[in-house]
Amino acid sequence: MSTTSNPYRGFRFPAEIIHQAVWLYHCFSLSLREVELILAARGIEVSYETIREWSLRFGRTYAKTLKRRRQQPGDKWFLDEVFVRIRGKLHYLWRAIDQHGNVLDVLIQSRRNTKAAKRFFRKLLKGLCYAPRVIVTDKLGSYGAAKREILPGVEHRQSRYLNNRCEVSHQPTRRRERHMRRFKSARQAQQFLATHSPIHNHFQLRRHRLSANEYRTVRDHAFATWRDATGAALVG
After folding, report:
1. CATH homologous superfamily for the domain 76-185
2. Looking at the DSSP assignment, which residues form a beta bridge with residue 85?
3. Which of 5, 65, 115, 129 could form a disulfide with 233 if both were Cys (CB 3.0 to 4.6 A apart)?
4. How many whole angstroms separate alpha carbon 150 and alpha carbon 114?
């Protein structure tokens, strides 16, 4: 009979507190020190450096588990890139969402040429394992060149205004960037955003489109999925 190792073995705090700290950090626009203060108000004495380590060690695995368990995203993809300045050097955050506002993937790159667009397309297709019905982008020429080679049969709509949905999706990243006083490196930005986007996205329930009863049902389901994902993420 095989036994499953406990991923939280050796930690001073129970798994429930680790889940709570990671959830607070990625679901809300809070700094590590603010999460530390919230936990202290509940009688939990833990340093912000410990919370950082929890986020690095467990957050990414939680995010991957949530991505595996989500329903298949929509077939209409909105793609956009926005500049991110890291240590004085300009980088670009490539992001894709579906028609329901679900974040599909993110990628930090130093260019926004055709090669960069192809790399992002391949990352999207590898992670989702299906092709979209239509993609919507701005008028950047790199999208068209990459699409003709990698997604030749997919409809491509290019417009300055059709892509507003994806441009708005960058707002949570901008808020976190301010709280973190900018990203320290491209690797750190990619690692953080790859964790932050699925967790933050999981709890964006579009409350303005739901009745009170519908919202409570969807909210309870989101929390149940989170508890299940964090409980099973590192087991096995």
Report:
1. Ribonuclease H-like superfamily/Ribonuclease H (3.30.420.10)
2. 90
3. 65
4. 11
